[in-house]
Design brief:
Rossmann fold; about 30% helix; elongated; alpha/beta; eight-stranded mixed β-sheet; about 190 residues; 3 helices
Length: about 190
């Protein structure tokens, strides 16, 4: 019996470790449906939305246990969620004319709560209204919305995220209109 040369053995072992075809990356758009009716309030300056560092990525986050987060491996947003939230708020609240009020927002959380099938998409945004001239804080509030995931995967969660974002942007819009309709504060 002849001994097997080391390079032949190494080549055979290397062939066993070559991975097969990889699942392709998928990219999803985070977007809310357009408002059904035009907004009655005046224009509001909308500052870019900031984000908690874990969610400041194009990766889609999920959770299978309270207090634990991870990212889907092959599923991503087309842009960072904070940019999408800002674009939705700007399209609803921005307008022509001089804005006397500034909306400052921070994306606290956006994740697929997958503790139970199919799970739910959860979004939390904190908001602050400021006077444009003095930058004095006029009001602040936190908004949380969730919507059921259509299926127990990233694609199903994205459908839930879009529903939750539409409701959340509507909540913020109603709050801004109510706060700006109040008499000026001393």
């Amino acid at each position: 019996m002849r001994p097997v040369p080391a390079f032949v053995l190494a080549a055979c072992l290397a062939g066993c470790s070559v991975p097969g075809p990889r699942e392709p990356d998928r990219f999803f758009i985070l977007e809310a449906q357009a408002a059904a009716a035009p907004r009655a309030g005046g224009p509001v300056a909308v500052e870019p939305t900031s984000s908690a560092s874990f969610y400041d990525t194009q990766d889609i986050a999920f959770s299978r246990a309270p207090g634990v987060r991870a990212y889907y491996q092959f599923n991503h947003w087309t842009e960072r969620p904070a940019r999408s939230v800002h674009a939705q708020l700007e399209s609803r609240l921005g307008g022509t004319g001089k804005a006397g009020t500034v909306l400052v927002t921070h994306l606290e959380e956006i994740y697929h709560d997958a503790a139970e099938e199919p799970g739910a998409a959860r979004i939390t945004v904190s908001a602050r209204l400021e006077d444009a001239a003095s930058r004095a804080v006029l009001a602040r509030r936190s908004f949380t919305r969730s919507a059921p995931a259509a299926s127990y995967d990233a694609q199903g969660a994205v459908r839930g995220f879009n529903q939750a974002l539409a409701a959340l942007v509507g909540d913020i819009e109603a709050w801004v209109d109510a706060e700006t309709a109040k008499k000026p504060r001393p």
